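Morning, I've got a small favour to ask if you have a moment. The fold is given in discrete form, as structure tokens running alongside the sequence. I'd be grateful if you could look everything over and explain what you see. No rush at all, and the record is pasted right below.
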Amino acid sequence: ITRAKMTKSSLKDAQLQALHRMLTLDNGNKGDLMSSGSSFSNNQWKIFIYDTPGRAIISPQMSVTKLRRQGVTLHLPLDAGKDGSERERIDDVPAVYFCKPTRENLTIIAKDLEKSLYARVYLNFLTKLQRAEMEMFAKLAVQTNTLNKIASVTDQYLDYVCLENQLFTLNKPQSYVQYNQPNQTDASMEAAMDDICYGLFSVICTLGVLPIIRCARGGAPEMVARKLNRMIAEQAASGTSKMSSLSRPLLVIMDRNSDLVTPLQHNATYQALVDDVLQHASNRVNFVVKADKDSESKSRKSAASQKKTYDLDADGDPFYSKYKFAPFPEAIESNGSELADVTEKEKEVRSKTISPSDSGVGAYEESSAATDLASAVESLPALLERKKQLEVHTSILQAVMNEVAARDIPVFYELENAFATGTYKNDMAKGKKAVLDIVSDPSKGNIEDKLRLIAVFVLATTAPSSHVDDLVGALRSLGEAGEEKGVGSTGQIIAGTKAIDYLKKLRSMHMISTVAFTDEQNLSSGSGGTPSLATLGNFMAKAQTQATGLLAKATERVGSLLGKTHKNQLTCVVENLCEMKPNSEDESYLYLDPKVKGDIDVSALRGIRAPVREVMAFMIGGGCYSEYQNLQLVSNSQLKITYGSTELVDPSIFLSQLAECA
């Protein structure tokens, strides 16, 4: 078994390099996938075969075009035969397998070898191939006399999905339910913790670093931290490790139960709102564009609703990279101004392409015009590409605005922020009334919005259970009265209230604490403050949206989304640990160093620890884009923060997981 060589770079780039080496059939190759060379001299034609986790890893990193550049002529799922079809025999081409080393996958690979489907195979496993599975697979290969067809077997340690330079997920669905369900057995919990450890170990191996691990004592974080610390120490002592002790990032491991408010709250920033109100997963966003009444009267065919799908690249798209963390109104304003700027430049460039003879100019002017034409030809493709990207964001911003308008999201955002920051802590009756007014109003949000508001009320206040029961009762009454009007279904309310009951139970058992965020910060990333209503109105006109009704209402209300934000629990913990603040988590959290045996007394390190320059913050039980964005409040040129989680969940998914735990 060989291991992939590690290179020091951002996590996304390092994973991309590892995938490149895998596809060039040479783990020692130091070529650069980022280069766009079209030559295939170093890339033999091959077939790429993956399982579902493997596809999830490769999809955000490599498009079909990039796979072609690596000589991949055909890419197929490993379990293609499940639907009755079989992968065809192509016995003169090698195959690269990329999958988990499970018994089921190994059995399928052994059958492929027996059928001689491919000339030879390169086996690449997402994580460590355990000895028992390795012996089973070797036995099958010997029995079928196919060992000679196996060119290599590599533990790639790539068992995580990297969505951005500083964002990754282990892609473990239903992770909160898995770690918190009442009927969880010790064996299943142990297996789940091992799974997380191997995922984090993959991240650490890819980066080639030797982290210092910090976590709260007890529960899942300590279980994972100790297992991971032991795993890293054993690897470092093996003599084959590529981990560098020169790079000592801080790995902070936390439990989702330490902050249940953040994944439920309504959001104010562009990326977080896209994930909240649209279908968004693995950097791909889907939404339906509904036809307006004018188009319907002109043509039934053109009036049909259209489904739009776009791939977002937060690192390669200049606009998205700059404004993904920006308040939604700021993103709208900037999109409008940048699109107008690009359109104007495009007109200027096109005007230079007018033939000199048409303008009656002299020889000197003709020569100058020819130079301008050459310059225009060079600059036009880049301008058109930028315009295309901005128009994509115009479409997405419009779709988000439609949802913001229809559901009156700013109302929920304001009130939830007020609860989270303790505005109503001295007047619970007033807080309850504010929630009751919104919950009882059928024009405010949908059933899920109201359930999330009640959940935040439960988590962020000390209101008695009777207050919560009154709110749930009002929601049930609304559902029963307005079911025919589309307000929501009674079944949806029953399912949602299970989540509320679960949160009440956790609070009564003191398994969670009420959360109060601290350190108010200005959310605007620009210097212009809140965009004027005229600016928003202009954007809506440019986007050819309805200027009246719900959208006009949103234009009036959406300005409130640009205001103040507060550091949430994870951000505060990371800041305290990095600044080594006395009487904070820095003193109470476990301190593990793979280079040192046993626990370390933090007080003994007072004054001699090196400043923290890099942090990996990891959340067990599911993370969210709003938490990822909130961490940027403490990230700067001196402190790089990478955020990871067992899975990325939107508020709807997380609410359903809470209900399953009831």
Q: What stands out?
A: The longest helix spans residues 363-407. The radius of gyration is 28 Å.
